[in-house]
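are you around this afternoon, could really use another pair of eyes. what follows is a protein written twice so to speak, once as letters and once as structure tokens for the fold. i want to understand how the tokens follow from the sequence so walk me through it. anything you notice is useful, everything is just below.
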Amino acid sequence: MEDIMTLNEASLHRVPCNICGSSKERFITTQNSCRVVECMECGFVYVNPRPRDEKLKELYLNYLPEKIEDPLQWNIYMKGVFKKAAYIITEMFPKGGRLLDIGCGYGFFLSEMKARGWETYGMDVSSTAVSYASGRGLNVALGTLKDIKYQDDFFDAVTMFYVLEHLPDPLDALKDIRNILKPGGLLILRLPHTTPIVRLLSFFGINNNLYDPPFHLNDFSPAATKVILEKAGFKNICTIIGGFTSPISMPVRLVTAFFGLIAEAACIMSFGKFLLPGVAKTTIAEKQR
């Protein structure tokens, strides 16, 4: 990966907090030569400064294939999370509907929902992923919401699995999603929550690269997720654990499963009031009817 410090100054820019607009920030750490900061007004964590949009697009050309080279491994990695999300959607819309998966990758969630009778659409910025998904007969387009125009009130459900943390302007993206959802439509977000782990490791003097900048530009706590969704006009916001991933490495897989099961149990036993810090979570939100 290209070191952000090797980019010329014109490729970088400073940004205010995407949630509250404040420019007051508190330094957290530096990873991949990127500064990660916390908003002093609302606590939102983000990368600042960061590459401009043109440079981000260039960096993303091979992002997904570099993460997991074998597409089938990606399906294994995400299967548990996909199953939980599919269950939530089909419970709310038992008769099916129209779904858009933003950042659909190789299209495995689209296949899951298509098998359940849904009309599925997908989009991704990785040409490799789009080519693979299209080759499997899925309706997938290359680009972003700004590139691909959908009519308002078009989808019953929109999903974003590990996508919002990558976006330069997540609030604007959520507003666009709200527009294309039907009244009563459902948005499902899957987001990492990295800051608690980074701070714990830092306390013990353990270096890490868990923020993964400049690919990850934002880090969402459940509180920050709720605030940004409310600002975008969503209602009935609920965050749950929503399953856990299954990494390729067996030791990492066992650790992930251990903490995932603890997090699920704690969430259920507390009736959703306790969400284990540091583990990825699923947030469900509705567009008001």
Observations:
- The chain has a mean pLDDT of 91.
- The first helix runs from residue 53 to 59.
- Residues 4-287 form a domain with the Rossmann fold fold (CATH 3.40.50.150).
